[in-house]
Design goal:
- With 111 residues, this protein is of the alpha/beta class.
- The chain has a single domain, classed as STAS domain (Transcription Regulator spoIIAA, 2-Layer Sandwich).
- The protein contains four helices and seven strands, in the order βββαββαβαβα.
- A five-stranded mixed beta sheet has the order 1-2-4-6-7. A two-stranded parallel ribbon has the order 3-5.
- It starts with a strand and ends with a helix.
């Protein structure tokens, strides 16, 4: 499902073996990621393996982003597949999401 790696300045969340971020596990993922803001001001979500996000998944992401801003943190995304990026652009979420091409670029933005 998800892998979480905590570093000093950021936490990295990866969706391994999960090609669909959907309502089925969005609530649990949301709770897991929100709790990371108690330990780190920056959370990076690596979407390398995700090929589809449904409305439940986007709802969870928007809720996480809201909590990040309330806590003075940042939510960053990287390695977004073309399929998911197309959905993000259609929904015009690229204007509010911090999107990076690689984990390295997202980590540099956390400094």
């Amino acid at each position: 499902m998800i892998t979480i790696t905590k570093q000093e300045k950021y936490a990295l969340v990866s969706f391994e073996e999960t090609s669909r971020f959907n309502a089925q596990f969005a609530l649990q993922v949301k709770q897991d990621i929100i709790s990371l803001f108690d330990y780190s001001p920056h959370v990076i979500i690596d979407l390398s393996y995700v090929k589809y996000i449904d409305s439940g998944g986007f709802g969870a992401i928007i809720s996480i982003l809201k909590v990040a801003k309330e806590k003075g943190g940042r939510l960053l995304f990287c390695n977004i597949s073309r399929e998911v990026l197309d959905l993000i652009e259609i929904m015009q979420l690229h204007m509010i999401f911090e999107i990076y091409t690689s984990i390295e670029d997202a980590v540099k933005a956390c400094k």
